[in-house]
UniProtKB/TrEMBL annotation:
P-type ATPase A domain location: 141-242
Key word rRNA processing present: no
Biased composition (Basic and acidic residues): 1-15
InterPro entries documented for this protein: ATPase_P-typ_cyto_dom_N, ATPase_P-typ_P_site, ATPase_P-typ_TM_dom_sf, ATPase_P-typ_transduc_dom_A_sf, ATPase_P-type_domA, Cation_Transport_ATPase_IB, HAD-like_sf, HAD_sf
Cellular component terms per the entry's GO annotation: endomembrane system; plasma membrane
Residue segments, region Disordered: 1-30
PANTHER family named among the record's database cross-references: CADMIUM/ZINC-TRANSPORTING ATPASE HMA2-RELATED (PTHR48085), CADMIUM_ZINC-TRANSPORTING ATPASE HMA4-RELATED (PTHR48085:SF5)
Localization: Cell membrane; Endomembrane system
Protein encoded by which gene: cadA
Protein name: Cadmium-translocating P-type ATPase
Family that this chain belongs to: Belongs to the cation transport ATPase (P-type) (TC 3.A.3) family. Type IB subfamily.
GO molecular function, one term: ATP binding
Length: 659
């Protein structure tokens, strides 16, 4: 799928085309749908029994069938009328015509059966989608309606969450659910975040840690400062996105919609021709051909086909939401099932993103402390993870430094600034070259650091005036692999991803060394941020379906050009949830493998459902056409197919299987 397509899906407005058939408004009728279906079924049964036993006068059975038709018809006729008023021929119109016709030709038993079985299949469908939706609701509508707010005078007061202002302090008792997103002010406790992240182990919380609405506090009590209004909590965002996800239709659904839009009117035309042509032109009996025409109408209901996709998608989305994987649309679930290549970011995705200084190598007469002092002075201005590591180390060694002047960052390379009146740079190998100060001696040291998979920062004097500039020191910085990476990559490969490619701004040798440790097929280093985007584009043109995993913040553009963008650790970052197609609430790469597997299963189930529904329909239509199948058998086949399709889809609700 090209980038273009991808954007299309995102912006495509929700449209309901053609045979919105089986999804008409069930709630319009005053009686509950279930009761009507049961009544219709029982009455049909009574009628059939009376007919069979011959114990009562024949008209009694007819009354039973009429009552059954009425009960089921309360669900069908109003919906049919609604469609007709909008000049639409949907499945309800189809059924209404068929039932009326069946009565006209004196087939009360079959009219009653048709109504009953049709309303039953609709009931099954709304039950199935309701069930899947309820699973999401119960999962997400977790946060309590009120919060215990601390007043200035030390008293506590229970007020609705919607009325709690940001920055108020709330009290979380042990064993209670956290009502709002916030930051722990005091107290220690462990919190079960499974409702949002899907992680089974509780997470320890102390002062300064974030907590999320809907998660469950365990043994300790916490005082929490509210950081977001109730309507903007992470949970609220998830609920909103899951709601929108269902409207983001996958390609198979659009195929089915298009198909149904042509199919239903076509069936009407054929039915009319079948009823009219033989009697008018070939002196055939009217009753016989009208009956066949009705059979055709009834059995053409594409119920199973129409629900083939939505029930599977909802089930798949729900199963993943339970595991802390937020998929923002059926379209992404289907695409993830097609992924063939995966691009990954290095820092924070493959490594933990907490680099540590492991070695300081002075070049020349400076001491380690002096190298660290100047490096920290420049990097105290920087947000780069490597910069943090350097500043942190200087602090921990009690090295005093003043922030450098004239700081300029150089994208993808490092930074320059003035320390003690001299222009300095700190950055990668390329930066040393651009300053014209690299030496073979330095390169030898750099190569050994890189071979170990460590990142590096070169500190140097920039040439200025008389001074020719030179390298003053090298800092080696290591970031450990995430603990689950090797196993996760094994699973990702096993799930059918042919190639995993790491894209990194770090130098090629370091990137390759890390990729090798992690079990990644290929590493591309020395990339500027916009080159990462180009690379993802290239991969898309090569593999068509390409996923990209990143933190969702620094690599938002690369995530956007991938077929499916995954953001890791989205729980703490609204931007990540926003930019990704799939947000992994927990920082856990194995979730990616699970998502791919579930995407594949969903795709497989949808394909099976669609083909199965079409095949059954074709067989029954043929049988009816040659006169073998009557109304009865046809309707039974349709209900059976619908039921099978639903059950098949609901299998996805079970936890994703390990590869
Ligand atoms: N503030 C800095 N201090 C020291 N070195 C830096 C700094 N900024 C960048 N560098 C150097 O430039 C290289 C590339 O940086 P860049 O930010 O493009 O990639 P990265 O984010 O470190 O890696 P990745 O893309 O794999 O996450 C770093 O590996 C480092 O050697
Ligand atoms: Zn060099």
């Amino acid at each position: 799928m090209s980038e273009h397509d991808h954007q299309d899906h995102k912006q495509e407005p929700v449209k309901k085309t053609g045979c919105s058939s089986c999804e008409h408004s069930h709630d319009e009728s005053p009686l509950p749908q279930g009761a009507l279906v049961v009544a219709s079924g029982v009455l049909t049964g009574i009628g059939l029994l009376l007919n069979w036993l011959h114990v009562a006068p024949g008209w009694l059975a007819t009354v039973a069938f009429a009552a059954a038709t009425l009960a089921g018809g309360l669900l069908v006729f109003p919906a049919a009328w609604g469609a007709l008023k909008k000049f639409k021929l949907d499945i309800n119109v189809l059924m209404a015509v068929a039932v009326t016709g069946a009565w006209i030709i004196g087939e009360g038993a079959e009219a009653a059966s048709v109504v009953f079985l049709f309303s039953l299949s609709e009931l099954l469908e709304s039950w199935a989608s309701g069930r899947a939706r309820k699973a999401v609701d119960s999962l997400l509508k977790l946060s309590p309606p009120t919060a215990l707010v601390k007043n200035a005078d030390g008293t506590e007061q229970e007020i609705p969450v919607a009325d709690v202002a940001v920055d108020r302090e709330i009290l979380i008792r042990s064993g209670s659910r956290i009502p709002l997103d916030g930051e722990v002010v005091s107290g220690n406790s462990s919190v079960n975040q499974a409702p949002i992240t899907g992680e089974s182990l509780p997470v320890e919380k102390k002062a300064g840690d974030p907590v999320y609405a809907g998660t469950v506090n365990a043994e300790g009590s916490l005082t929490v400062r509210v950081t977001k209004p109730a309507a903007e909590s992470t949970l609220a965002r998830i609920i909103q996105l899951v709601g929108e996800a269902e409207e983001n239709k996958p390609p198979t659904q659009r195929f089915v919609d298009r198909f149904a839009a042509i199919y239903t009117p076509a069936v009407f035309v054929v039915a009319i021709l079948v009823a009219l042509i033989p009697p008018l032109f070939f002196q055939q009996p009217w009753q016989f051909w009208i009956y066949r025409s009705l059979v055709l109408l009834v059995i053409s209901c594409p119920c199973a086909l129409v629900i083939a996709t939505p029930v599977s998608i909802v089930s798949g989305l729900t199963a993943l939401a339970r595991r802390g994987v937020l998929v923002k649309g059926g379209v992404h679930l289907e695409s993830v099932g097609k992924l063939r290549a995966l691009a990954v970011d290095k820092t924070g995705t493959i490594t933990q993103g907490k680099p540590q200084v492991v070695e300081i190598i002075p070049i020349g007469e400076l001491s380690e402390e002096e190298v660290l002092r100047s490096s920290a002075a420049i990097n105290t201005h920087s947000e780069h993870p490597l910069a943090f590591a350097i500043v942190e180390t200087a602090r921990s060694r009690n090295i005093e430094f003043a922030p450098a002047a004239d700081y300029v960052s150089v994208t993808g390379q490092g930074a320059q600034a003035t320390v003690d009146g001299h222009p300095y740079f700190i950055g990668n190998h390329r930066m040393a070259h651009e300053a014209g100060v690299c030496t073979p001696e330095v390169e030898k040291i750099l190569a050994t650091i890189e071979a170990k998979g460590q990142s590096l920062a070169v500190l140097g004097h920039l040439p200025h005036g008389e001074c020719r500039g030179r390298i003053l020191g090298i800092i080696a910085i290591a970031d450990t692999l995430r603990p689950e990476v090797v196993e996760a990559l094994r699973q990702i490969h096993k799930a059918g991803i042919q190639k995993v490619i790491m894209l990194s701004g770090d130098n090629q040798r370091t990137a390759s060394a890390i990729a090798k440790q992690a079990g990644i097929d290929e590493a591309i280093g020395d990339l500027m941020p916009d080159q990462k985007v180009d690379h993802v584009r290239k991969l898309v043109s090569q593999y068509t379906h390409v996923g990209m995993i990143g933190d969702g913040v620094n690599d938002a553009p690369a995530l956007a050009v991938a077929t499916v963008g995954f953001a890791m650790g989205a729980i703490g970052s609204d931007t990540a949830i926003e930019t990704a197609d799939i947000a992994l609430m927990k920082d856990d790469l194995t979730r990616v493998a699970e998502t791919v597997i579930l995407g594949r299963r969903t795709l497989g189930i949808i394909r099976f459902n669609v083909i199965f529904a079409l095949a059954i329909k074709a067989v029954v239509l043929t049988l009816a056409f040659v006169g073998i199948a009557g109304l009865w058998l046809a309707i039974l086949a349709d209900t059976g197919a619908t039921l099978l399709v639903i059950l098949n889809s609901l299998r996805l609700l079970a936890a994703p299987k390990k590869p």
